[in-house]
Amino acid sequence: MERTLLVIGIGPGDPRQVTIEAIEAMKSVEVFFVLDKAPERGVEVKQSLVGLRQEICERYLEGGYRFVEVPDPPRDRNPADYAAEVRRWHDARADLIERALIDELPEGGVGAILVWGDPALYDSTLRIVDTIIGRGHIGLDHRVIPGISSVSALTAAHRILLNRIGEPIHITTGRKLADTPAEAAANQVVMLDADCAFLDTADALDHIWWGAYLGTEHEILIDGTVGEVGERIRDVRTAAREQHGWIMDIYLLRKPR
């Protein structure tokens, strides 16, 4: 009998932003599997990240479920071949999650992975699930429940639109920001930018709307031109990461007309 795995988007951090569809799906879950990127600040940070998920479950569920934490495999943060290292890391994650599904979820059971934001936006969970199914070692059905993305949370927090009339929107990462083609650079949504790449790529008059820990009690918002607030964003980001041991942030970078 097949096991069922639900991949549930839970938004960027505020339990109030979990959708009704997600809550209804969570009520059917027996086991929640938790696998996060290994934090640099150890057990306290890990408990904080797991705790946010537990808070969501405690708010909306009555019990009858359990959490299984899956240790995250190590990853080289500065590899010679970035794509190859990410593929290796994803395969290692697939090994661990597959083993956990076999050991912790009975046949016919329903498990879930709670994904920050939306599972389709810069998250590896669906690739890992596809890898597990493709191996054929375990009968596994899966379903995806969308979540409010950090993009939506950012624009709502700043009370802005993603684009001006008729303009394109380009979504990228800090690593790829310098490769944005000129025709797509009017409105750039940038994620996973640990090095504040906009300081090297943006013009001083480009406007930036930046947000971190969106939807949580630690939310930070800064906006202005890169020339005005760019260095402050870098300093605030560094201090916040040092204080909390982790950071999730995103920004919109817009060219002036």
Name some characteristics of this structure.
CobF; 35% helix; 5-stranded mixed β-sheet; methyltransferase; 5-stranded parallel β-sheet; cobalamin biosynthesis; 257 residues; 21% strand; alpha/beta
Name the poorly predicted regions: 39-43
Mean pLDDT: 92
As a percent range, the share of helical residues equals 25-40%
For the secondary structure, the number of strands is 10
The helix/strand class is: alpha/beta
Shape: globular
Give the N-to-C terminal Cα separation.
59 Å
**In DSSP terms, counting alpha (H) and pi (I) runs of 4 or more, how many helices?**
7
Q: Major sheet: order of its strands?
A: 3-2-4-1-5
- Rounded Rg: 19 Å
Largest sheet: 5 strands, parallel
Q: Could you spell the SSE succession in H and E letters? A: EHEHEHEHEHEEHEEHE
Which strand-content bin applies to the residues?
A: 15-25%
Describe this structure in words.
- There is one protein chain.
- The model is unreliable at 39-43 (pLDDT under 50).
- The chain has a five-stranded parallel beta sheet with strand order 3-2-4-1-5, sandwiched between helices.
- The protein is globular.
- With 257 residues, the chain is α/β, with parallel strands linked by helices.
- 35% of the residues lie in helices and 21% in strands.
